[in-house]
Amino acid sequence: MTALRVTIGGMTCTHCVRAVRAQLEGLDGVAVERVEVGSVTVTYDPARIAPSAVLAAIADAGYEPAAAGAIDEGGAGA
Fold first, then answer.
1. pLDDT in tens, 13-33
2. Around 24, how many Cα atoms within 13 Å sit in the side-chain half-sphere?
3. 35 pairs with which residues across the strands?
4. What is the pTM of this model?
5. Hey, which residues does 2 pair with through a beta bridge?
């Protein structure tokens, strides 16, 4: 699994957080780690889904994925 943090525009409240979480939880190969106003952190299986699909799901929920970057987990979980 690979970690990805996405900055999101247009999120202003807990409803937005729930909407983004629900959209991402519907993706095969994605585990939602944290959602807060303005960002989300997920882990995904690159063999099952591309990061661009995560960004597209956020856009489909009505928000603006502004920036995405892999997270260096520093060997955590190994």
1. 999 999 999 999 999 999 999
2. 30
3. 40
4. 0.86
5. 44
- How many residues does the structure list for the chain? 78
Q: Which phi and psi (to 5°) does residue 9 adopt?
A: -95, 150
Cα–Cα distance measured from residue 15 to residue 46, given in angstroms and rounded to the nearest whole number: 29
Distance of CA 16 to the CA centre of its chain: 13
Alpha-carbon gap, residue 33 to 44, rounded angstroms? 10
Distance CA 67, CA 8 (A): 7
- 39: CB partners within 8 A, 6+ apart: 5, 6, 7, 8
pLDDT confidence of residue 59:
97
Q: How far apart are CA 71 and CA 17, in angstroms?
A: 21
